[in-house]
Design brief:
Structural class: alpha+beta
Radius of gyration: 28 Å
Helix content: 40-55%
Distance between the termini: 61 Å
Number of helices: 28
Length: 877
Amino acid sequence: MSNENLRRDEAAGRSALITTTSYDVSLDVRQAADPDVPGYTTRSVINFTAAEPGASTFLDFIGSSVHSVFLNGKGLRTEDVVDGSRIRLDNLQAENQVTVTGTALYSRSGEGMHRFFDPADGQCYLYTQYEPADARRVFANFEQPDLKAVFTFHVMAPAEWQVASNGVETARTLLTSDPATARWDFAPTEPMSTYITSILAGPYFKAEDRWQATLDDGTHLDVPLALYCRGSMAESFDPDELFRLTKNGLDFFNRLFAFPYPWGKYDQAFVPEYNLGAMENPGLVTFTESYVFTSRATDAQYQGRANTLMHEMAHMWFGDLVTMQWWDDLWLKESFADYMGTLGVDRATDWDSAWVSFANKRKAWAYVQDQLPTTHPIVADIPDLEAAKQNFDGITYAKGASVLKQLVAYVGFDAFVAGSREYFRQHAYGNTTLSDLLAALGAASGRDLAGWARQWLQTSGISTLSLQLAEVEGNDDGALGLVTIVQEAVDPVTGRSEPRPHRLRLGLYGFDESGALVRTDSLETDIAGDSTPVPELAGRPRPALLLLNDDDLAYAKVRLDPVSLATVLESLDRLSDPMARALCWTALWNATRDGESPAARYVDAVASFGPGESGIGVLLNVLENACTAVERYTPPAARQAVRSAFLAAVEAELDRAEPGSDHQLAWARTLATLSRQDAALLPRLRGLLDGTAPVQGLAVDAELRWHFWHALAAHGQAALAELDAELARDTTASGRAGHATAAAARPDPAVKAAAWQEAVHGQTLSNQLLSATISGFNTAPAELLAQYVEPYFGCLRDVWESRSIEIAGRIVRGLFPLDQDLADGMEPAGHPVVRRTDEWLAANPRAPRALRRIIVEQRSHLLRALTAQAAVVVSPA
């Protein structure tokens, strides 16, 4: 619909006119289990006030039809007031009540009310997902974050189902006219935004517990807890561990924030085909069910789940209790939750590597995003809902959290916590902007944060820090001369140089008597401007490694000086500190991505030092990077040699790894990934699948089996009948996705044509199966996919206009012809796909901003890969 994309100015005008007080919402999903029934009845009763009696406003609703609209007791003609996704309300009074009844549609895209039929047992499951603005797909409402209200929900559903919402259940009544149906009534909520309301319904498995605590001020809390997952996954569910983490988190955050948990109960549901990692709906948090580990999972995956759990719990305060006024300030909730999630894992669980994982994974995401031409300030310019959808990115989450970590170091942890507590007290159940938070933190710390905010929150791009080491004439004893920290920082949006203030540590590392590379000293310093001398180091013995940003306090890319680089390339496995190792891995990877270091050098480092990496999260990340370096950043003429050598190293480590260890599983997954492009070890994969050549301790379970089948199928060595037989053994949702990927990976022109047709023009694939099909389609030799370049650019506008933004985004991003090689003598910008992309952008200047953003970003990823392939790099001294 042409008017789905609510603009910021429209939202501001509406919130200036009206104030919402309450919603009473009824949903009838009793026929959801019938796949031939596309929708359900929805009824909203909304009470609101108007500042200007006689004025007009509008409601939001995206559904099949609107049956009736009553405003202040008067029936309105739907044909007069319904316009696409909006319902016009004229001649408002000071106090108003509007009642809208309509039919909403079940979703297969993860937007609105998602309906899923479990392939394992045929059961039907429902859940809702709204952010940023899909509550209007379920019930009529004023869909913007600053129009908060109290919500009361009622749901009619099959009596044997579990049904939950934000509020506690107050009644469950069997219908006398239909004993197979029950009506659930839920308590009114505290005031909240529409996008965090939630409904869950279906034959879910449910576990229950309670969390009780007495806070420092004497407040006693008794919070009911519940966990949900699909019935077919109950055997793999681990509620005891999840309840333990939940209680630890509630203990930690309630004491940290000194504001008692405000939402009554705390349910957590793990749901299928989820578009996100999780969503912070108060009282009913939803998570992707990939966190229910049905196959062998590494410790890093368990830690990642704990981090997400803590992230969402922090949102109960940052985002739910206090909410941004508009999506410009999305970072007010997401950056804080990202920082607090890591802090929660660090302070409230048994893991001691939370900040290493943050440096290794989350900040790496931010570094990638911040180098795209579409990067933006943490406080972004979000003119409409489509732009808001695109800004759930590495800037808003991980860069924002990284900058907050810097801010904590700058103002002190105690002041940061004190400011946060005052922020909650002042703005509970309200909406805020940047200035509100800065006022609270500034008052607590005694610092004027306006300058800090301008430099860090309102500029774009990433600083690159390097060391300039002055030569000392006649110096034969290896002493350091003047050391200067050089900062390069250009805002890619404005083109201006934006050197930022950093508080960081410079670590000095040397070899001890055992040969380990250990920190011998550390210097903390503030830097600003283009260069900052460090006179304290002059005359000191030259360490083997000078590590900028030691302990990862600052947000910046780091370049290693030549001596430090040589040390890292020779002795990375001897560096004893896990954080220091992670930072060195990151420096090597950033140099590879930037074309300053050959991809083969990074791959060699992973082959040499990966086996000694004790942190499984770091190992998984560097193995993934190495595969990318092989397939996208290595020049085509050298790729097979680099891939073959790395594949041999991976196989050797699989055989050497401790049986049953996380490391063994990591090497096995990497073997499967590399084998999609190299057939040398396919017989070995066959032997692992059929059990004729097992590896001691390696459980070839469902997830790993589908990895192996994907590789075999990519070389035409897996018949469809074999894949169907595997699916018959694994009738799960993940098995169905694995089958779709492997089936589409077969290198047959007819297979690729069918996958393209289904993804681009079909309407039957759910969000999960669409992504799986696209993944399989893209697993193919370049010559097999070359014919789809023109159809891709030809279908973009139609896809964007005919699909929901979630599905359209998956198609546009996933099918971009990203995997390309640079021919000899060709300039990266002259590659045919780069030129075709430029032509499309030039010909479509008025295409939706969100669509153009995806195309621009994909072009940037492609150009970076081609540039890396073309780079001529001088080896380190």
